[in-house]
Amino acid sequence: GIGWRRGTRGGEEVKILNRKLIDQVVASTEPIVVHRTPLQIKRLRQSLGSVELSQSVFVPIGGRQNSFGILSTHLSSEAPLTSEDLNFIQGIAYVLGVAVERIESDQALRESEYRFDLAVRGSNDGIWDWDLITDQMYFSSRWKSMLGKSDSEFDGGIHDWIDHIHQDDREDFEAALDYHLHGDTPYFTCEHRLLHQDGSYHWMLARGLAVRDDKGAATRMAGSLSDITENKRVESQLVKDALHDTLTGLPNRALFSDRVTQALSRTARAKGDLFAVMFLDFDRFKMVNDSLGHSYGDQMLIEISSRLQKCVRDVDTVARLGGDEFAILLEGLENERRAEEVARRINGALGEPFQLADREIVSNASIGIAFSSIGYHHPEEMIRDADIAMYQAKSQGRARHIVFEKGMHVRAVSQLETETDLRRALDQNEFVLAYQPVVDIKSRSVYGFEALIRWDHPARGPVPPMEFIPIAEETKLIIPIVLWVMEKACIQANEWKRNFPKTRINMRVNISPQQFSDPNLINDVRHILKKTGVDSSNLRFEITETAIMENPHEVIHKLGLLRELGIQLHVDDFGTGYSSLSHLHRFPIDALKVDRSFVASMGESVENMEIVRTIISLARNLKLRTVAEGVETEEDLIQLSKLKCDHAQGYFFSRPMDSKSATSYLRKQNGKR
């Protein structure tokens, strides 16, 4: 730099090296010497001051892999340079290149280490490094801290690691390690539990990769360790949630089916083993939900689950399948009587009142039982059959259990076919109405007709009402069916009114309990009245007392709305339900119908005679009329007349008739031929 003008040092390279010359130097492996003419020397002197550059030597500064620049050596003398001079300059350029390369390499290494350290700290993982030649291992501070240890602790080898692994996980860990070391797996990975300093076990995920020599033998292995305890907790909770009912904590349908599958497998191996599946449905639970609210319904379900668990052993499984449906798996039974004893014990426990909203609620269970001795292969079949038996128990009354028999499945399939056919029957006009006369006892003249539905199945012929009505009730197909009956009966009533204008004939239609859960009931009735033009005062709706008491507040409200439309209301089958006589006066009703079971045996049973007498007397005191069903003899009619019953119907007067026969019956009653 001696002799250079102030402010020009480092800024005149372009005047000494042009792009072409730079490319030549970089591409060359030998020094390039440039000799200048007097004119060139003079031009450079103007820029560089007193310095004369007669010749220059240019050598690339290169490391082992890259070129970093050019070393320029300038001479004022024109004396030729020897080979030693050129070699010396080349040596300096090489040393400079290696130095620059090392500096860049160190910088890159520091940057890489910084990034690696940042990545490790960011991932919160521990690092381990295993020298398989010396069997020495390095564990990072984070690795140790995850086990609650300090940097000075845990400096052992792989065996110390394995000693801290949970006994149940060691075999899997060692197997995964061996597989990778022998080249059977591309990576080493293993979830296992490690002993923490506080005595607890933490779930860890170990990952690693082996470094191999030319022969493929592992010489070194390094990897990371992640604490996955929280992940495992969440995973365990998700599994539990997937297999357990969130409200009661009991196993759900999926877990219950799995346990039944395991029980079937054990029974297949040991032929003498016996177990049972119980299916439970609780009576009046819907009423609790509807009247008190779902929160109280949930409280009741929690209490039910607690009582059920107290009725069985620890080896048994109590599950909630949904709603108020529970199932129980009873294993290792000595005989079938044991399961029936449990069923009785359950209904005994459920007989104790539930304290809900300062009220005492009593509930019982309908229980179906299926035994493994039938020879099941799939859990769904066994649960299905227990369910079928439960519905059989439900149809026979409250607080009882039924053991499944093979014939029940045939009936269930038949019921399913009936349900399918019912859906088609309305569209295909397969239903018809029959009419049974209701007679005024004093005058023995026709007072009205009860409309009764009949089903003429295209393949099976006439289907008894007792066979399809319960299915229609269960599937709620009864709602459109009753509306159909209502409309057809109103049309027939209008036709008789035109044909027999001097005869006052009322029409009676049975209303299903399901009808009162339909929010459209009142509007549907208004529509039918308007469409048919029938006089609503000639219309009678009959509803059982049991239906009223299932949900008295809702039913009584809707009965009041029907009364406002001018329709009279009769309580059907009175005396067979469980209505409270103290509440009877609150019901917006017009008449009581004495059940046929009391009327038919009046002459044979003093008790039944007194029941009929009491009902008629009660109705009279409440200013209600009475209708006796099931009148079959003259003696029945005479006795009812003595008891001052108002109306009667039964086979003594006529069996149910089609509309044509009923019209002829009316004509005969009116003296027309």
Our measurement of the CA-to-CA distance between the termini, rounded to an integer number of angstroms, reads 147 Å
Share in helix: 40-55%
State the major sheet: 8 strands, mixed, barrel
Structural class: alpha/beta
Structure description:
It is built from 23 helices and 24 strands. The strands form five sheets. An eight-stranded mixed beta barrel has the order 16-17-19-20-21-22-23-24, surrounded by five helices. Helix 14 crosses helix 15 (465-475). The longest helix has 41 residues, at 83-123. Mean pLDDT is 87; it is low at 1-14. Helices cover 45% and strands 22% of the residues. It is elongated, with a radius of gyration of 49 Å. A hairpin with a 5-residue loop joins strand 16 and strand 17 (446-457). The chain starts with 12 loop residues before the first helix and ends with a helix. The protein is α/β, with parallel strands linked by helices and 673 residues long.
What keywords describe this structure?
673 residues; alpha/beta; eight-stranded mixed barrel; five-stranded antiparallel sheet; elongated; disordered N terminus
Q: How would you sum up this structure in a few lines?
A:
By secondary structure, the protein is of the alpha/beta class.
Which helices and strands occur, and which strands form pairs?
Elements: H1 13-16, H2 19-27, E1 32-35, H3 38-48, E2 55-62, E3 67-75, H4 83-123, E4 126-131, E5 136-139, H5 141-145, H6 158-163, H7 170-181, E6 188-195, E7 201-212, E8 218-227, H8 229-243, H9 253-269, E9 276-282, H10 285-292, H11 294-310, E10 317-322, E11 325-330, H12 336-350, E12 354-356, E13 359-361, E14 365-371, H13 379-395, E15 400-403, H14 406-427, E16 431-440, E17 446-457, E18 461-463, H15 465-475, H16 478-499, E19 506-510, H17 521-532, E20 539-544, H18 545-550, H19 552-564, E21 568-574, E22 591-594, H20 596-599, H21 606-621, E23 625-628, H22 634-642, E24 647-648, H23 659-669
Parallel strand pairs: 14-15, 17-19, 19-20, 20-21, 21-22, 22-23, 23-24
Antiparallel strand pairs: 1-2, 2-3, 4-5, 4-8, 6-7, 7-8, 9-11, 9-14, 10-11, 12-13, 16-17, 16-24, 17-18
Helix pairs in contact: 9-13, 10-11, 14-15, 16-17
